[in-house]
Amino acid sequence: MSPSLLRRLDRVSASLLLLWAGAALGFGAFAAPLLFQELPSRDVAGRIAGLIIGRLDWAAWAAFGLAGLSWGARWMAEVKEDLIGPLRLWSAGWLVAMLMCLASAFIVTPKVRAIRARIGAPIETLAPDHGDRVAYNKAHGLSRNLFFLRILLALGLAATVSMLPRKNQE
Question: What are phi and psi of 67, to 5 degrees?
Fold first, then answer.
């Protein structure tokens, strides 16, 4: 691939990552607190926030997955050269982000939904030491941590995608 095509792919990757990070940060910092503040029930606010998080999870798959186009053509060239280089470090960050998408979309979010369905009532109606409320709080905390770590990874990957090598290293 030519360096100009790689530069364009880098810009597209950075744009997708920044777009997703902006949407996720906007929701997490502005919209979610307003939902819980203004809606009459925390349960309704949580259900709406959960639906939005589900959509942001799928958007994260798209953003991080398409950002992988930036390094796909470069990977084989670096395999011959350095043990650890910028491409491998970027790839490790990208892989961690994809694993977080996997964990969030297929493990944590279904667990939160299963607990909510099993309870069938607002979470705050349960005693603080009730097993389902404790499990829900743990899963929700993990979901929140994965969400904000993916935002940080998206910002980091977007900031460093321009540092990936662009020359053919054959």
Answer: -65, -25
Which residue type is seen at 52?
I
Q: How many CA atoms lie within 13 A of 84 on its CB side?
A: 2
Terminal-to-terminal C-alpha distance of the chain: 12
Q: Which of 113, 110, 108, 89 is nearest to 146 (CA)?
A: 108
Question: Who contacts 54 (Cβ-Cβ below 8 Å, separation ≥6)?
Answer: 105, 109
Residues of the chain predicted below pLDDT 70: 1, 73, 75-83, 167-170
Q: What does the pLDDT look like over 56-105, one tens digit per residue?
A: 999 999 999 998 887 776 765 555 555 677 788 888 899 999 999 999 99
Long-range Cβ contact pairs of 87-94 (< 8 A, separation 24 or more): 87/164, 87/165, 90/157, 90/160, 90/161, 90/163, 90/164, 93/153, 93/156, 93/157, 93/160, 94/64, 94/67, 94/68, 94/157
Domain boundaries, the chain: 3-163
